[in-house]
């Protein structure tokens, strides 16, 4: 699988996929910069009048619910449907789902109208999507579902929505409903920076925009982010969170096949 | 008071307050990151459909008028009223008030409908709120109210709105209408970074979300920001403004009881 | 011309022009910070209810189409018209024009209703404005108009809209319809950071807000950005893209007359 991930990165760097983001205004700059750093080309556009045109020319479409409202929800659905018609992969990040009724309804509306190729969230967000209940302590919520078997949840969610599901946390778990990958890369300090989840989702968008195998693309994105977090922490820990934030972008920009081979830490299993 | 501020910081780090922000799209990333860096948990959400739910579960609500519009003004008022009903502290940042009629009307509408626990602004913004006139040279306006006694203005404003008022500038002045604290921490270079005011407000939100005494919470937040600015300037002055910006987040993330004791510079008086 | 550019910088630092931005939510923080770093005072406001008031008191108005929508398009037109009535310079950045029909119509609507003093874009964007056709591969599009003579295009566009046109790329070309300046400063790594184009536009806004000669102001802004990119790259290349991003802001903040004299690389010609 290392070779597949190395190839996936090379594809991103060579094809320079156009990643159309409909995303939140909190972490959007980081999402654009990380897409550029991995080798993609980001475009952010959410006017209902243009999302059809923009999604049509994109290599992938990222729907991130972070600061969703009525206007942008409608644009996300239009962009997502357009991508579906054209066979362009859609990556969905249900930020904060479980926290408010509106957020819940919005996520379920998107999932009912748009076929998503990849869903990425934390355990509490994905839990909600599976159970349509659960509670979150806001967007960066810690999971109180410790007694829940997260791996089973991820596999079930993948089978429910017939897509790849990526659950990020201390250990990342990715499944397409059959295969399961656990990724051990990353550093706990990443949760002290806003947007590391959103950046993961943008990386998935970039990888999926340049690779047909969305499962490998998603694993590659999460391993890329995890490795970048580890290397950035090593180099910036003396300085602190502001420099760590910049360090993550540094390391994504320097990522290459050799670093992936040296640093990737994961398990593969069939479920 | 040092011990009270040390305790206030510890409370933030232990309680990890959820700070619901309705804020501008210019400095929102910094607001989220500084909330995380001090130990809080930021959530940004401004859809009218969800702000009641989000504010209800928050530890504090921050209303920042930076890029206000009709849609977000309505959401701010709803979020603020909800917080009032639930006894959740509301921190108000009347960014740029005095600059345009719309901004003036919006600030006064918020203040008439929402009981704010803390108001933070620069002298020209607070002047306007007190006098309902004054002129600003835009958002980062220098005060031409030099002949005005700022301390009296802050005390009067605190008594007018029955809340804590924090006026930030070369010297920060905080009052609850009786006690007055002057804080001498900070560095003039901080005004060359956008959002240092907004970041202060977010820190106040984090401290108020974890502490019952809003006066101590506000003083702690401003001293935290001032100390971070000083330490960051020392470490990054050779490099420049971009690194100074990151340095502020570095230092907030490293702040501890000892640093507060060593670095805090302030005067207390009764008015 | 070096002396004129040195004078232009001094004017920015002394007059501290208020640059009213109506801009996108992706790069807005960088736009504000670079405006501060060069010595200006940024204000971001896009509510239709206040843009007349804000534009009226501004030294210059920047219209950046990055994440335009119906609401902000109307505000841009109102702000632009207000600036025209008051004789305040308007700088237009038609981000991504050519990519979608809505973006094309919006750009042409702005240009038909607002007299722009400066238009800045990349070759594909400016090509579209001239030809009203052309194709872009999204916002950061590479130009497939290699066989097109960009200099002729810039001159023609300047004559068509009776304004200064700045085309940024490997070589920057600026014309007022008669004079042409080519700027060789900059580093190719700048295109791996989102918003270097937007930041250029904000610098043009700051220079035009403090100088009557918009041609010199525009050249000064692009040379400032190019020099900052080169110096930042030298200092941060070991670290990577995140630090390079901060480095650009560092260098703009340290720019002075001597650095301009030492580092500026350009040609002047009459067309």
UniProtKB/TrEMBL annotation, chains A, B, C:
The UniProt keywords, alphabetically, are: ATP-binding, Kinase, Magnesium, Metal-binding, Nucleotide-binding, Thiamine biosynthesis, Transferase
Set out the biological process GO terms recorded for this chain's protein. Answer: thiamine biosynthetic process; thiamine diphosphate biosynthetic process
Which protein is depicted? Hydroxyethylthiazole kinase
Q: Which residues bind ATP?
A: 120, 168
Positions annotated to bind substrate: 44, 195
**Similarity comment text for this entry:** Belongs to the Thz kinase family.
| Entry EC no(s) | 2.7.1.50
Q: Which NCBIfam families match?
A: PRK09355.1 (NF006830), thiM (TIGR00694)
Function statement: Catalyzes the phosphorylation of the hydroxyl group of 4-methyl-5-beta-hydroxyethylthiazole (THZ).
Q: What is the gene name?
A: thiM
Against Pfam families, the record matches this protein to:
HK (PF02110)
Reaction catalysed by this chain?
A: 5-(2-hydroxyethyl)-4-methylthiazole + ATP = 4-methyl-5-(2-phosphooxyethyl)-thiazole + ADP + H(+)
| Cofactor entry | Mg(2+)
């Amino acid at each position: 699988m290392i070779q597949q991930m190395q190839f996936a990165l090379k594809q991103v760097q060579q094809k320079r996929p156009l990643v159309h983001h409909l995303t939140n205004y909190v972490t959007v700059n980081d999402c654009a910069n990380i897409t550029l750093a991995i080798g993609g080309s980001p475009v952010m556009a959410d006017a209902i009048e243009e999302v059809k045109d923009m999604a049509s020319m994109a290599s992938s479409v990222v729907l991130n619910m972070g600061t969703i409202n009525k206007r942008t929800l409608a644009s996300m659905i239009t962009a997502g449907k357009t991508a579906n018609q054209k066979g362009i992969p859609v990556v969905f990040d249900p930020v904060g789902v479980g926290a408010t009724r509106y957020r819940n309804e919005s996520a379920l509306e998107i999932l009912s109208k748009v076929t998503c190729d990849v869903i990425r969230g934390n355990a509490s967000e994905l839990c909600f999507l599976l159970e349509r209940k659960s509670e979150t302590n806001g967007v960066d919520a810690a999971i109180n579902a410790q007694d829940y078997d997260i791996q089973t949840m991820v596999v079930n969610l993948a089978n429910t929505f017939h897509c790849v599901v990526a659950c990020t946390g201390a250990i990342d778990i990715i499944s397409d409903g059959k295969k399961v990958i656990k990724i051990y890369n990353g550093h706990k300090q990443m949760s002290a920076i806003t947007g590391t989840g959103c950046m993961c989702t943008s990386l998935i968008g970039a990888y999926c925009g340049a690779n047909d195998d969305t499962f490998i693309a998603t694993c590659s994105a999460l391993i890329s982010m995890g490795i970048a977090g580890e290397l950035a922490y090593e180099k910036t820990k003396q300085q602190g969170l502001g420099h760590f934030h910049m360090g993550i972008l540094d390391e994504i920009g320097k990522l290459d096949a050799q670093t992936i081979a040296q640093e990737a830490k994961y398990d593969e299993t069939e479920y």
